[in-house]
Amino acid sequence: MAYNEDHIALAAEYALGTLDADERALVETMMAGDQDFTTLVAAWEQKLGVLNQMVGSVEPRPEVWQKIRAAAGLSETQAPMVLPEAPPPIVVAPSTPAVAVADSSNVIRLSNRARRWRQVATLTTAIAAALVAMVAVGVYRPDMLPDQLRPQPRTQVVAIKTPAAPATPDAQYVAVLQKDGGAPAFILTVDGVTKNFTVRRIGAAAEPGKSFELWLISDKLPQPRSLGVIGTGDFTARPVLASYDAETIKAATYAVTIEHTGGSPDGKPTSAPVFAGKLIETVPPAAAPAPSPPR
Asked: CA–CA separation, 215 vs 255, rounded Å?
């Protein structure tokens, strides 16, 4: 519901406590039948409550009350109140012309409205001054404010980045596959972590209708194990060493035989190795971190 200026002023003065008994009764009657007007009054009470929180209650000294009573003429026993007698009614003769009585209700209404808005303007100024004072006190002397009005301390989390330790390279192995100490034919490289290997063709050329096949020969195995046919390109990469343990990979002999195109048909070499070699370590494995000294 939309309220006019008089309604808003009544709600503000009711919350401020400046209405007389009749006006307070009117506001309470409106609140009893209008929930929206009750909400409007509660909003003004919340706004004005800040002023009440910033001023502590002070009990005046007894002599102050005595001076107030003396100034008001209440220090002595009061005489009973005597109401003045009503004046006799004025009788107007019939021949006397009627006198028009001016309607002053509009003047009274405008006067009351002006009085209310002067009070609202004063109230708004007081609220603004109180808010400015509260902000200033919160900045410079927050300990003077009530606990519920004190600004909460803000915690800032600062992340400290520790430089990462330099990465240690993984272990790498290489084998030069050659014939009787001759020129290298292939270079075999093995990664110690992933166990993937790469064959680099150097000087070997396959005959037409033939293929080079790589074999792993170990004392732990009953027969050589095929690692696949070496491709016709410069590099051939395979992951087939993942099924062997690290000790077998490092101690084995790697040999190359010449097979028919596509490799051995039964998984066994059909000819003697023409190139062979063993792995040597080129990059040491990552060292375990040293234990921290006791504190």
From this structure: 5
pLDDT tens digit sequence for 236-272:
998 888 889 989 998 999 999 999 888 898 889 988 9
CA 240 to chain centre: 49
Identify which has the larger pLDDT, 200 or 294: 200
Nearest to 290 by CA among 160, 163, 165, 172: 165
Q: Which amino acid is at 242?
A: A
User: What range defines the domain where residue 3 resides?
Assistant: 1-54+110-151
Amino acid found at 243? S
- What CA–CA distance (Å, rounded) separates 241 from 216? 9
Query: Cα(3)–Cα(23) distance, rounded to whole angstroms?
Result: 17
User: Are 10 and 24 a contacting pair, CB within 8 Å?
Assistant: no
How much is the pTM?
A: 0.41
Both 124 and 222 in one domain: the answer is no
Q: Is 166 within the bounds of a domain?
A: no
The SS3 assignment for 108 reads helix
The larger pLDDT score, comparing residue 220 to residue 126, is at 220
pLDDT of residue 224: 93
**Into how many domains does the chain fold?**
2
DSSP 120-146: HHHHHHHHHHHHHHHHHHHHH-GGGS-
Q: What is the DSSP string of 227-273?
A: EEEPPSSSEEEE-GGGGS-HHHHHH-EEEEEEEETT--SSSS-SS--
